[in-house]
Design brief:
268 residues, Rossmann fold, Dihydrodipicolinate Reductase, domain 2, 2 domains, 5-stranded mixed beta sheet, 10 helices
Amino acid sequence: MTDKGVAIAGLGSIGREVATWLSTGGHGLALKAVSSGDDVKVTDWLNGAGIKVPVVPAGALSDYAEVIVEAAPPAKFDGIARPALEAGRTLVVLTSSALLVHDDLIPLAAERGGRIIVPSGALLGLDAVVAAAQGEIESVTLVTRKPPRGLAGAPYLEKEGIDVGEIVEPTCIFRGSARDAALGFPANVNVAVTLSLAGIGPDRTTVEIWADPTVERNVHRIDVEADAARFSMEIEGVPSANPRTGKLTPLSTIAALKRLGASLVVGT
């Protein structure tokens, strides 16, 4: 059987780990191409890693692979996602917050025979949330605590004049809907959008964001009240080299790719 082709848009901490795993082979998937904002830097990394695939423009990835993994900055999202879905490809989305800005991509996928997959990323318990959403959910709340450096550069902080470098004690810097959290923190709290898509939507999902210098890990607590169950879950993720994301995210992406051709799939 021929391995299914995978292309990666964005070779940061997530994309590199996924590319390295794909290059090992033996799992029915093969890395066919990559794209990046810095072709020279990425080519050097690929050569150093012994990975021989072409570096191509993001819009051309669908010419090389059936599955496109989006692991790029939010500003690059549309230029990656739209061509892939227009070509009827499977798009694995890491920047889930961008789906709220480009919500026309969901009907586009349906029209062209494409598919959008959002891995669990740094969250836990999405199976339970998805299951509960088949009944009635009264409320979903996410409380995120991050070291201040993991929130630096967010548009909301710049708009409100908040300098996280000056925060010396746990401080709630945002409380609102997942939709507003996605607009204010597009590179920091994709977990909020992923949770909302699994459950009751971005307008009914409540999010609190704390800049907390007392924690060294990204802490996410989920509380759900539903007719089928009441549950609370908390996870402490180790930040990656990029403090905005955790080490669990690339592993979750790899797990999502494995499910594409798995003979046994465990979980909802």
